[in-house]
Design goal:
Layout: E1 3-12, E2 16-26, E3 29-34, H1 41-48, E4 56-61, E5 64-65, H2 69-78, E6 79-82, H3 94-104, H4 110-123, H5 139-150, E7 157-161, H6 169-183, E8 187-192, H7 195-201, E9 204-209, E10 212-218, H8 219-226, E11 230-235, E12 243-252, E13 255-263, E14 271-272, H9 277-286, H10 291-296
Parallel strand pairs: 3-8, 3-9, 6-7, 7-8
Antiparallel strand pairs: 1-2, 1-4, 4-5, 9-10, 11-13, 11-14, 12-13
The protein binds adenosine-5'-triphosphate and magnesium ion.
């Protein structure tokens, strides 16, 4: 399911520009939306989910037009949404909660609904704890209940807002794998501020900062753009200074190796390194107003 966003802006009351002239084409499979706090990720996802109206611009989900009442109700039918702050009923168990959401979504036939709920509990690995109250669930288990409720209507477009925040590394990997599986047969839009989530799951991504897209493309293109900007500088201890950002330090006996992103070509002993996706992100955040990133977003 192809999503096309054209010149979309959102101004909140008080004049806050949460999104500014966003253009984005999201093909099938997993698509990553990366950006720091306050970048506008949730705003964009809420507009896609039809919960929030944009100030201007257009939105197409498949052939459904997000600017018309009819289009929006059609979009709701093909869409699953896991909000950043999904409220749950702490005294319901997982099965009761999903059954209840199913009723709210208009799944009127009890048998069909309960069969779907069981299928989903199995899919997200919660079958054995289906009768436990949600208030006894860990953060990771709650996220899995969240993804299950988003999948009740077997959506062709799945939107998940920061689903891995607060999960431990093992849970995060498990959750990412689940999303990758889901992305095999539908469009999955994943927002995160964790670079690693995107690196492991998405081929295509967009990076949002202060309401503007500062990069869109695939990971290989992003890495290519950052080549020549990542360096190792080894010193006997003193922190190197220059037009760059230190991203990590490695203690090696009597010396320290600094990994830096920026302009370090002239620096004594600087050795070029292959960029990781995290280096790319740091570089883009540094250089967002440069000519290059302006060229990239065309
Ligand atoms: N209801 C609102 N009223 C006014 N301003 C808002 C509202 N919701 C969000 N904003 C502002 O819009 C901007 C974008 O917020 P948004 O929640 O979309 O960012 P985000 O990328 O999802 O951030 P986070 O990573 O913290 O979830 C921020 O400056 C935020 O303060
Ligand atoms: Mg958010």
């Amino acid at each position: 399911m192809h999503v096309v966003i054209d010149d979309l802006s959102k101004v909140y009351r008080g004049g806050i520009y949460a999104l500014q002239n966003v253009n984005l084409s999201i093909p099938g499979g997993m698509f990553g939306l990366l950006g720091p706090n306050g970048a506008g990720k949730t705003t964009l996802m809420r507009i896609l989910a039809g919960i929030l109206r944009p100030t201007s611009g257009t939105l197409l989900v498949g052939e459904h037009d997000g600017n018309t009442e009819k289009g929006r109700s059609e979009i709701k039918r093909v869409l699953g949404y896991l909000p950043q702050d999904l409220g749950m009923y702490p005294d319901l168990n997982a099965r009761e909660f999903l059954d209840y959401i199913g009723i709210l979504k208009g799944m009127d036939r009890r048998k069909v609904r309960q069969q779907r709920v069981d299928e989903l509990l199995e899919m997200v690995g919660l079958r054995n704890v289906a009768r436990r109250k949600l208030k006894t669930f860990s953060g990771g288990m709650k996220r899995r209940v969240g993804i299950a409720q988003a999948l009740l209507n077997d959506p062709r477009l799945l939107i998940v807002d920061e689903p891995t925040a607060g999960l431990d590394p093992e849970e995060r990997i498990r959750f990412r794998n689940l999303l990758s599986e889901l992305g095999g047969e539908r469009t999955v839009l994943l927002s995160t501020h964790i670079v690693e989530d995107i690196a492991q799951t998405c081929r295509n991504l967009a990076i949002l900062k202060s309401g503007q897209i500062i990069f869109k493309g695939n990971i290989a293109e992003l890495v290519q753009e950052t080549r020549g900007k990542v360096w190792a500088i080894t010193t006997s201890g003193e922190k190197p200074e220059g037009n760059f950002t230190v991203v990590s330090t490695l203690h090696m006996g009597t010396s320290i190796q600094y990994r830096v992103v920026g302009e370090a070509a002239g620096q004594a002993g600087a050795i070029p390194l292959d960029p990781s996706l995290e280096d790319c992100y740091v570089w883009l955040m540094r250089e967002q107003h440069s000519v290059l990133s302006t060229a990239l977003i065309r």
